[in-house]
Design brief:
The chain has a single domain, classed as Ferritin (Up-down Bundle). The model has no long low-confidence stretch (mean pLDDT 97). The chain contains 9 helices and no strands. Helix 1 packs antiparallel against helix 2 (31-59), helix 4 runs antiparallel to helix 8 and helix 5 (117-145) runs antiparallel to helix 6 (149-162). With 246 residues, it is mostly helical. The chain starts with a helix and ends in a 6-residue tail after the last helix.
Length: 246
């Protein structure tokens, strides 16, 4: 079931990102940003739906995208811990989005050549959207980093908070190795990611955080408590009214 597990990883990263970004609806610093983050959330949700639909078909147990999104426990999710972190500050959202979107853009570019035609097709569509996500988060990173003393302080703090969680993005395991030709070894994306992200930080007069703490475990179902709270809110309606339709 390596393919099923890999599809969950792709879908869950996008799904949880969409949920977190959706929390900014009507709360963003300005109206234009409110719309922008909502649109990025919808892009992520679209990718999540396609990956999770395919995952359900591969599993062959009768679970569709809704069942996989709303009827799994936190230990069954395969997203990296980075995407589930609480966005207590707008700068945290931007720092997370920058790190994730650069990774996703590189990943989708590589996956567009996957031997699995379905994955290649989904990635080919998602790569165009992720390019915008990179541009948007990079512009905000520079704007905040090179802005006022306060915006620089908060962007620096946000980067220091999320940076340790970026290392998990590039971990390789047996699932990826067994899917050679279908999946992409994330370790091969690390150098390109570092070059692009470091370039944005330099433009924003921001230092690259230094840390020896690298939390991990998301790909195997080990998550922070933040995911439990997120899923409780995201899943409550579906679980309260199973099988309900509009």
């Amino acid at each position: 079931m390596e393919l099923f597990d890999y599809l969950l990883r792709l879908g869950d990263d996008a799904l949880i990102t969409a949920q977190r970004l959706g929390e900014w609806s009507a709360r963003a610093p300005e109206m234009e940003e409110d719309i922008a983050l909502s649109n990025i959330a919808l892009d992520q949700l679209g990718a999540a739906r396609m990956f999770l639909t395919y995952a359900g078909e591969v599993e062959g147990a009768g679970r569709d995208e809704d069942a996989l999104a709303y009827l799994r426990s936190d230990q069954e999710f395969r997203n990296v811990q980075l995407v589930e972190l609480v966005d207590a500050d707008f700068a945290t959202t931007i720092a997370k989005l920058l790190c994730l979107s650069v990774y996703q853009h590189l990943l989708y570019l590589a996956l567009s050549d996957s031997e699995d035609e379905r994955i290649a097709a989904i990635a080919g569509k998602a790569v165009k959207e992720s390019a915008y996500h990179v541009d948007h988060s990079a512009l905000w990173t520079v704007r905040l980093g090179a802005g006022t003393h306060e915006s620089h302080r908060r962007m620096t703090a946000a980067l220091e908070e999320v940076w340790p969680f970026t290392y998990e993005l590039f971990e390789t395991d047996d699932v990826v190795k067994r899917l050679a030709g279908v999946a992409v070894d994330p370790a091969t994306l690390r150098d390109q990611w570092s070059t692009r992200v470091h370039g944005v930080l330099q433009a924003g007069e921001l230092a690259v955080p230094q840390t020896s703490w690298h939390p991990t475990g998301g790909r195997s179902g080990k998550h922070t408590e933040a995911l439990s709270y997120l899923l409780a809110e995201m899943q409550v309606l579906h679980r309260a009214h199973p099988g309900a339709t509009w």
